Amino acid sequence: AAIATLIEATGAFRSRLADAGDVELIVDGQPFAPRTDDPLLATGSLTWLIDAAVLAHEYLGDPLELRTLPPDELERRLLQIRRRRCASFALMIDGELAHARGDERAQPVANPKLPTLVLVAPGTIGIDLLCEAAPALTKLMGVRRPTLETMLERLERAGFDGFGKPSEDQFARAIKRGPEVVRDYFAATRGGIERRVRALLPVVAHLVDRESAEHLRELHERVGPALNLRAWLIELLGEKIAGGCLAAVDETDDQRIIRRSMSFDFAEYGMVLAALGYPPLNDEADFRRMFEVYLGELRPTLVDRVRRHFLATWSAKSDLAAYVSARTLDFVTFDRDWLGRLEALTREVVAERADKATQATLGTDNPKIILTPLDRVVADNRKLILTRHAEFAGLVRTWCRKNGEAVPAVMETSDPQTIVRAFDEAGFLDFERIEANQLPELYRRIEAWPAEMKPTSDLGQLGLNQGDLEFEANEAREAKRKAELAKRTIPFVGTDLDAGAADFARQFETLAALAINGADEWFARSRPPRLLGQQQREPGTASRGSGGGGQSWKNQPPDSVKSAMGMASEWLAREYLRRRYPNEMTDDCWVSSNRAAFCTGSLGDDSLGYDFRLLTERNEWLFEVKSAIDAGGEFELSPRELEVAGSASLERKRRYRILYVPFVFDPSQWRVLQLSNPAAASTRDRYRVVRSGSVRYRFERR
Fold this sequence. Notes:
Blueprint lengths: L1 H8 L13 E5 L2 E2 L16 H12 L3 H6 L2 H10 L1 E4 L3 E5 L2 E4 L6 E4 L6 E4 L7 H15 L5 H11 L10 H8 L3 H10 L1 H18 L2 H14 L5 H9 L1 H10 L6 H8 L3 H10 L8 H32 L5 H6 L11 H4 L5 H16 L11 H30 L12 H11 L12 H7 L13 H4 L3 H23 E4 L2 E4 L5 H13 L4 H5 L33 H22 L31 E4 L4 E8 L11 H9 L6 E8 L11 E3 L27
Parallel strand pairs: 3-7, 11-12
Antiparallel strand pairs: 1-2, 1-4, 4-5, 6-7, 8-9, 10-11, 12-13
Helix pairs in contact: 2-4, 2-6, 5-6, 6-7, 7-8, 8-9, 9-10, 9-14, 11-12, 15-18, 19-20, 19-23, 24-26
């Protein structure tokens, strides 16, 4: 309660209990609800998780907790946990979505009967994802200490990649015990009777009945490792069949391998597994992947069938919304019953389902209707729009201006891609080759042509002349010029400067010199800041975004403005260095290409990895200048700049510093902040990498 009070007092956050009624988990856009058909987590290829959890609990856990939470209870809890794969999840708090961070892929959902681990995992669940999900599993199992997390990380360091199951030596190294300890554990529990019983329950149910399987389960619960499983099976099934059953489960509890070993009917055994709550024999993710592959191969033929069905609708100039929906082929759905009936999904099975779904949705096909191939007709129609759209957009704008009508939004620009997308979304591109004289009517159908304007390009019928078009073209060019100028314009001490103008540097220098003439407040503000330590991002995880404000790397200003920022910040950095090092700083110390705008002599070199090089009696100082339009808090270093920063990371004679200029176009807030070397071992923890740069590779052909 005290923590919640402090959080509320900040005025920036609201505290809520995670299990409060106004907090709801949203999975793939839908409220989460536990399902009995979600597969169990610790089965099949992940059965070894039980061994890992129990060994970790016994040998890495708290002895007191071991007494209050026995290993068999821990195992029971883990066996209850189900898994739900998804593309994304988020929390709905007071009606507002709070999305998970980009690096969060696991979410525990506690439920008395159906505890579930929600995973963002489109592919195989590997050791890296399990390590990430370990804290969530710990919560679901009700364990206080993160023993499973420690175990999984140690297994990974021991060389286990998540495929198959860990070896006895890997388990031994993870718990820091001898291999004999692990062997004794397997002999007494999982590697002995218990694993075999669980693997044999479906076998017994299939060969005899579910009552016999239930009797075996109850008998094992009563006597535990003392159960003489071979004798029990021989009495029930006979010596030959009992021997075959034990051989089938001797090295595995994978029910797919067991079924093949016992030559059981796939569908019948699948029904037995489902009745006992075991996962299906097939991996649903693999089946869905193959379904998408085969459907993709069938798509051209199916889409042509959809086109033939809706050709009459196109010819009648009727609404094509039903066609646009049908061409996605969403009516051809994945059949979950395949998992229980089919050992492998084939192209023929998908083709049969697609044909039935198409027949049910569209009715009988008419193959006598001949259509131009879809890719060709779409390419021709797209080319027509790309060629003629600027002309029609000019006609519409001219007519609207002359008649006092509002210009349709999609015609405000001459960019044809907007109309191409609109035509595609309306289904206009897919049937026949469109003629130029058909375009006005089609424009009208997507509300890109005014209702009162005749659907023609004839100037006389539209009441226009060539002079009207020329005037509109000039107006459009002028509007574009003004828009581009507005993007480049920088308000600076009451004057609008064009960042792309040839005399920008001269105008800026004149105004900037006046702004700091006789005023040293900016230099007084330029004290080296004390930087807070940063929480470092783990390798391979996604960025959590900026922690210090400033323009985002996703929302950068135009190139001309960025160039102007570089000139302005380096000019101010020169003035800063002149005051900081009055005896050593000269224009020759400015070595970047921006010097050419303000100094004579060398043109400068931007490949050096720094902007200023200054020599004192004690050190060689290399300064790289970075800036922000606002308060900032981020900067980016090129590979060359990182290389030079690394060469000076020992902080000896050679020193590398960042000169950071926030509010670069506001002299009233000017300051130059000298920041420590991001590559130095003593100061790198004061920076956090929020975005990794690209790497350029070179190759040569033989």
